[in-house]
Amino acid sequence: MKAFLARLKEFRRYPSAVAGLGIIGVLLLVSVYTAITIPYGEAIRRWRPTDERWLENPRFAPPQWLNVLPGVNRPETIVVRSGQQGQKSVAEDGRFEIVLPFQFPYDGFPTELTLFLSSQYAVLGPYVEVVWITPEGPDRKEIPLWTRSVKRAERYIVSSDGELASRLGGRAPEIGLFTAAALGVPKDQVKPAKGEYQMLIRGWMFEEDGDVDAKLVVYGQVHGWAGTDNMRRDLTLALLWGTPIAFAFGLVAAVGVAASQFTLGAISAWFGGGLDAFLQFITRVWMTLPALPIYIMVGMFWSRSIWAILGVVLILGLFGGGVLMYRSMFLQAKESPYIEAARAYGAKNMRIVFRYLIPRVIPVLIPGFVSAIPAYVFLEASLAVLGIGDPSLPTWGKVLNDSNIAALLQGHYYWVIQPAILLLVTGFAFALVGFALDRIFNPRLRAI
Amino acid sequence: MDNLLRLGKYTVVRGILIVLTVAIGVYLTVVIATMGGYMDKILEAQIKEQVGLELQGNEELRRLPQAEYRRYYDERVAVLKRSYGLDRPWIYRSGRYLLNAVTLNLGRSERILSDTGSSEVRSIILERLRATLTLILTGQLLLFFTALFTALYLSRHYGTRLDRAVVALSPTSAAPAWFYGIFLILIFASLLRVLPYGGMVVAPPPEETWAYFLSLLRHLALPLSAWFIGGIFQTTFYWRTFFLISSSEDYVEMAKAKGVPPRAVERRYVLRPTLPPVITSFSLMLIGSWMGAIILETVFTWPGLGRLLFQGISLNDAPVIVGTTVIYAYLLGVTVFLLDLLYAALDPRVKMGAGGRRMA
Fold first, then answer.
1. How many CB atoms within 10 Å of residue A412?
2. Could you tell me which of A402, A390, A403, A272 has the C-alpha nearest to residue A330?
3. In this predicted complex, what is the ipTM?
């Protein structure tokens, strides 16, 4: 054991491996943090595209930190509620007025504009008139948008109002409402007017204890730490939850496979004879099974749960190249002189196994097992990219699958690159550590 | 003569083992699909189509009233179902399905059609096989020879900057080829717009041979590069290490001391004894490459078997998925068998009959 720890100390001689270890540490912290702050069930529930809270997010928005770059000032999403930033006044006769003001200091236009109205009434819903007021100045305009008697929950998607667009001279509302540029100006020179905009909602309520609340969402071009996807979901959730899942999948698969192959290799070498031949035969057959198509079939025909796939990975990993490798190592060790010596002084079987045989194999076991982790992390991503990932679970591979890689065609680089970089960093971290461990435990390699 | 006999015996033994392996692999595929009830569905669809055709061809039956026609149809389907054993327990049926699968009687697809419009899974697969073989063979040959010669070069120039770079870069193989494919698409197709995003040739395919070939090369460039980047550093590193270990053996020193020219030392004393383990490691790589190509083809929309499997998944086409898996079992078996033969040709111990097969 002491020698083992002493060897681990040598680790410091490999700066890249120390860096790898550091990355693994950070990712582990992220995993723990994620698992504590957003419980598993909660994450699955939230990742559903139908979850209400995604309604306030823009579609296809790159991450917010893009604005840190010089010269980039893309609009963020602005939400104005009548109960908070807005002012609401209700008169005796049922007249009401809601003003929803917001500052717009950005260089780009919003992507969408939606007004959510919720009203309480028994029989007759309120009558509502919506007016848009541009920032103060000589060009200040009041543009009437919409009039309607509203239901309990009403959604007015300003940006898809075709009638309004034609009144704005053919410009899309999210552009036409935000610019003072004359109509003839070429498209790429149209700039938004900065300042305080207002949305004015006025009308009548026809019932004594009726009420109206309004929420205006000015969808931006950037959102959150990681941006959003085509279904307005915040990618931060998937990137965060992808970490513990990648770790759990990679570690469980690597440990399980290494342990079973190690055990079977040991059994094969120890008992020899017919059992040995049989296990070797099974291993050779097992190694030639088309693993990936089998995972796919299980995913298609049985269960798409990531834990079911993990089970199949463990079963298919039961016999593998490792069995043959460990077997030959055990055979070598079994016949080496020091084992004979141990027998000669009367050592018990248990003592021989634990003191002499296992320590002999560990140098191969540990680096091999660490280096195998990235393969399983990428296997999970591969299955997700093929479309048989767990449909409910937010993982890195799932984000890649949702983005369909084709997102690159449309210029949504962040969508593909972020999960890819996380996968890459995780894979490299384990590979670097495994590489260093290999050299530490196999002195024969170290000289070379 | 004796050697030839031994080699023949070895080939036969390996051949039997491979046939068994493929059969077990196919059977496993069948069992997974049978227990999910999918094989029955595939067979049932086939029976219904057969009966439909049969009745269509019969003038008398076609003139029967609707209800009677229907009754006749159902009866006929029931008879055929019984004769195919669909009323028997699944373990019995699975044997039948195994026979079908092994003889490549893979049924008809539900949605996907071949380019010629056939719905026969076998012909769809045969059409796709060409594209997959083009990708894998060029990729693996490129990788094998580049890695072999670079490894030899590095073992001669051990410790140089290039050598250290290869060692440092070897962990890059932790990420699979398709993954590098994403970045290559991003750089060369999306940002620089110099190479196509995917596919095998431009549509419509060029008429002249050379234009076709050129277009094929342009489309091959990115997937091949991804393949190459994904494997080259680790493979070169492994083989270089093999060569280094083997060139520190006493007999190599002896040969050098005798004054054997360096090239001859490399060929006869270093390369020759290390080739069997190199071939073994290459064969493991090749097995992995069949699997890796599935996703690489999906990412690059390369119209091969892997992409077919992906289409089968997205269209929920069970016969195609089962058929493709069976073909992969065959391809893996054939790959291992061919490499075994190569191994036998290279490893003198097989010819001399000493010991069994050594695992490297």
1. 20
2. A272
3. 0.82
